[in-house]
Specification:
The chain is α+β, with helices and mostly antiparallel strands. It has 4 helices and 7 strands. The protein has a 4-stranded antiparallel β-sheet with strand order 1-2-3-4, sandwiched between helices. A 3-stranded antiparallel β-sheet has the order 5-7-6, with helices on one face. Helix 1 crosses helix 2. The longest helix is centred in the N-terminal third of the chain and has 15 residues. The two termini are about 25 Å apart.
């Protein structure tokens, strides 16, 4: 089901608290068994002082409420989180299409191997698994997979 009043825009500093809360709720719902490397307050501070002011951060809003976020870092799709009640409405599709337009040469991203819904989502959008790790290189120490997308 598509949402008629969805707005996708660049995040502004005042979005940081809400963006952090969306990230926290989404991570908790999607990855309940994956150890978080940082406390809630550290996550909030990271979004407030690093991510929103210094990274290409996008939000999807419905009636001015942030319901999703995406962070791009060059050709890396660094973060993509949808608030759990808003999953399945095409919001992630819109954000991935935006990421593809912003990085027409291609994209890469990491996700945890246990996150089967995310893996299916990215594969549906043309991303291909390119590398698997044992998690030694990430803060959570969770096996992950790197996906790449190249334009046709």
């Amino acid at each position: 089901m598509k949402i008629d009043n969805l707005v996708v825009r660049r995040a502004v500093d005042s979005d940081a608290p809400t963006v952090a809360e969306v990230w926290l709720r989404s991570y908790t719902a999607a990855l309940p068994d994956v150890r978080r490397a940082h406390t809630d307050e550290e996550v909030r501070s990271w979004f407030r002082h690093v991510v929103v002011p210094h990274r290409e951060t996008w939000v999807a809003t419905v009636e001015d409420a942030v319901v999703a976020l995406m962070v791009l870092d060059g050709e890396d799709l660094d973060q993509l989180y949808i608030d759990p009640p808003w999953r399945g409405h095409g919001i992630g599709d819109r954000l991935v299409e935006l990421a593809k337009r912003r990085s027409a040469a291609g994209l890469s991203l990491w996700t945890f191997q246990v996150n089967a819904p995310a893996r299916r989502f990215y594969e549906r959008h043309g991303f291909v698994a390119a590398e698997y790790t044992d998690g030694e290189g990430n803060e959570e120490r969770e096996p992950d997979v790197r996906y790449v997308w190249s334009p046709a």
